[in-house]
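Morning run. Coffee first, then this:
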Amino acid sequence: MAKILVTDDSMFMRRTLGTILKKLNHEVCEASNGEEMLKVYEIEKPDLVTLDITMPIMDGLAALKALKQVHPEAKVVMCSAMGQKAMVLEAVQNGAFDFIVKPFQEDRIAETMARAMS
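And here it is:
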């Protein structure tokens, strides 16, 4: 079991991913944008962060870079919609562990989380 910080500006997407992660026996905390994620990360010290790429205030790429500057050991999985290949590639080049594509598929999430936690 891991503590996972789910970051997405859409409450529906946070809840959808959170429900899947809880089913996989993970503890879930949430943030609605990159700026909030940085604050919650300091309080919760999660084992892994999921980051939506496109968010207001601070997008996923900016949040990833800011988090990795302070916590280079942080494990981050990016969440993207189809068609964001260039952004996903940039995220991986900036230290993201992996990415999952929306709409979420439970088996892909389970596989990615297992690899990230091993």
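Residues 11-23 form the longest helix (13 residues). Good start to the day.
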